[in-house]
Design goal:
The chain has 7 helices and 10 strands. By secondary structure, the chain is α/β, with parallel strands linked by helices. It has one domain: Rossmann fold. The strands form 2 sheets. It has a 6-stranded mixed β-sheet. It has a 4-stranded antiparallel β-sheet with strand order 2-1-4-5. Strand 7, helix 6 and strand 8 form a beta-alpha-beta unit.
């Protein structure tokens, strides 16, 4: 995907999201407008119930807005069919989940190689790439282990390798350190930042944790489904140059 020079890789235009609950309508998002540039680490920050998870679902095409639209690389994903969306996500998007979401019956290598399977890359080639990336994230001794044989931090390292292996345009990280201790949290966030910098990829980090938000280039704060702040993070980077 090649975006025109200077054009945001993600464009959110007047998004509104409503959910019918019984006889009432709950408004989860109210006229959200947002641009995210290529290579930017953008944090969607807010407390529980602020609308940040709903916004993530809109950005990733998991849900369609009630009104408005989302464009990624100029493609209006809000208008795509489910089949088109699935193909788009496989080609352009990566995901890091709080609960890791590794397939239990696949080894670390097989889990990480999975996105390359959807691109038609031969097994030997995709597993070689997966092993190389797993070694980079410190899992050279876990290549043939199943998720149940790995700690939470090790599973999340594998999850990061899986998210980045196909070099997607955008990686969504949904509370990626929520189940980890503080030491592992720092390691995981520095790893995400390093990959993003090396591959010039856009990261959407969703969190309620101010310490995680501090890693971002820009922090977008939501309260009650509205953006109340959209600011460049002027703090010195908390991650280390590799």
């Amino acid at each position: 995907m090649k975006d025109p020079r200077g054009r945001p890789v993600i464009e959110v235009r007047n998004i509104r999201k409503e959910y019918p609950i019984g006889d009432e309508t709950v408004v989860a998002l109210k006229r959200i407008n947002l641009n995210v540039m290529r290579g930017e680490l953008c944090c969607i920050f807010g407390t529980s119930g602020s609308g940040k998870s709903t916004l993530l679902n809109q950005l990733a095409g998991m849900e369609k807005p009630t009104r408005g639209e989302v464009l990624i690389g100029g493609v209006p994903i809000s208008r795509l069919s489910e089949q088109q969306l699935a193909a788009f996500r496989q080609r352009h998007l990566g995901f890091v989940f709080q609960s890791y979401n590794l397939l239990p019956n696949l080894t670390a290598t097989e889990n990480v190689a999975l996105p390359l399977l959807f691109r038609g890359i031969p097994r030997a080639e995709r597993e070689a790439a997966a092993r190389k990336l797993l070694c980079r994230v410190g899992l050279s001794h876990r290549l043939d282990h199943f998720p149940r044989q790995m700690s939470g931090g090790q599973q999340q390292r594998a999850g990061i390798a899986r998210a980045f292996i196909a070099r997607p345009d955008v990686v969504f990280a949904d509370e990626p350190t929520g189940n980890l201790d503080s030491k592992t949290t720092v390691e995981i966030m520095e790893m995400i930042c390093t990959f993003a910098r090396d591959y010039h990829q856009t990261i959407i980090l969703v969190t309620h944790d101010p310490e995680m938000a501090a890693y971002a280039d820009r922090i977008v704060t939501l309260i009650d489904g509205e953006i109340v702040s959209n600011q460049v993070n002027k703090k010195e980077r908390v991650w280390h140059e590799a």
